[in-house]
Design brief:
57% helix; Rossmann fold; 236 residues; mainly alpha; 8 helices
C-alpha cells in the first residue's frame, strides 16, 4: 500500500510538472491573455508560488557584461512577450462575501510587493471573485475579457488598416488554427492563379470553406439542396 501511494504521488507530481512546462511554453509563445485562478481557501500560498514562477520565466531584457565589466550591446537576452494576466479567486462560494474586500487588498498588496514591475504592468487592475460551481460572476469576467481583447485587437488592426471597426475576437485557439488553414488555401489560389485548373481552384475554395465551417458551423451539401428544394420549384 505504501509503495502504491508513493508511486501515485510520483506520477501526480510528474504530470503536474509536465503541465506547468507546457503551460509556460504556451504563455511565452502564443498567448495574448491568461486567467490566473487562485483557490480562495489557499490563495496566499498559491499566489506566492505563481509570482515566483512568473518572475523566473518572464525576466526583463538584461544586458550581459563582458570580461572587462562593460556592457556588451551585442549580447542581450531575448525579450519575451508577456501576456495580459487577469487574476481570479475561484471557489468564492466557500467564503462569505464580506471577506472579499480584505482578500482583494491582500492580493493587490502581495502583487505590488513581490511581482516584477514589468510583469505587474501587464496585469489587470481588477481582481475577480468567481465560482465555477454555481457560475457566480463568470458572465462579468467574460464580458471584461472580451472588451479588453477586442480593444487590443482593434488597436493592432488600426495600425495596418484604416477601417478597424468590425473586429471579431477569436476566443479559442482552434478557431485561429482553422482560420489560418482557410487563409492558406486562399493564398495558394492567389499565388498560383495562372497555373491552376478550375477543378483545383474549386477544391481549394471548398477546403477553405470547410475550415471556416468548423468555426461557424458545418453546412452540408444535403442541407443546401434541401433549402433549394423547399424554396424553389425545379423543373418548370
Amino acid at each position: 500500500q505504501e509503495k502504491k501511494k508513493k508511486k501515485k504521488k510520483y506520477i501526480h507530481k510528474t504530470l503536474e510538472s509536465m503541465g506547468i512546462k507546457k503551460t509556460l511554453s504556451f504563455l511565452k509563445n502564443n498567448c495574448i491573455s491568461a486567467f490566473v485562478l487562485l483557490n480562495i481557501k489557499n490563495y496566499k500560498k498559491e499566489l506566492i508560488n505563481i509570482i515566483k514562477i512568473l518572475n523566473h520565466n518572464f525576466k526583463g531584457k538584461i544586458n550581459q557584461e563582458n570580461n572587462k565589466g562593460e556592457l556588451n550591446k551585442n549580447k542581450m537576452t531575448n525579450k519575451i512577450k508577456i501576456p495580459y494576466f487577469i487574476f481570479c479567486l475561484n471557489k468564492c462560494d466557500l467564503v462569505s462575501t464580506c471577506k472579499f474586500s480584505k482578500i482583494k487588498r491582500n492580493v493587490k498588496k502581495c502583487l505590488l510587493a513581490n511581482l516584477s514591475t514589468h510583469i505587474l504592468k501587464r496585469c489587470s487592475k481588477k481582481i475577480f471573485f468567481i465560482s465555477s460551481k454555481n457560475g457566480y460572476n463568470i458572465d462579468t469576467l467574460l464580458k471584461y475579457f472580451n472588451e479588453k481583447m477586442i480593444k487590443k485587437r482593434k488597436l493592432l488592426f488600426d495600425k495596418k488598416y484604416s477601417n478597424g471597426n468590425n473586429i471579431m475576437f477569436l476566443p479559442f485557439e482552434r478557431h485561429k488554427l482553422y482560420l489560418k488553414k482557410a487563409i492558406n488555401h486562399l493564398l495558394f489560389i492567389q499565388k498560383n492563379i495562372h497555373n491552376l485548373t478550375f477543378d483545383i481552384i474549386s477544391e481549394e475554395i471548398k477546403l477553405a470553406v470547410n475550415s471556416l465551417n468548423r468555426i461557424i458551423g458545418t453546412i452540408k451539401n444535403e442541407q443546401i439542396l434541401n433549402k433549394i428544394l423547399d424554396s424553389f420549384c425545379i423543373g418548370k
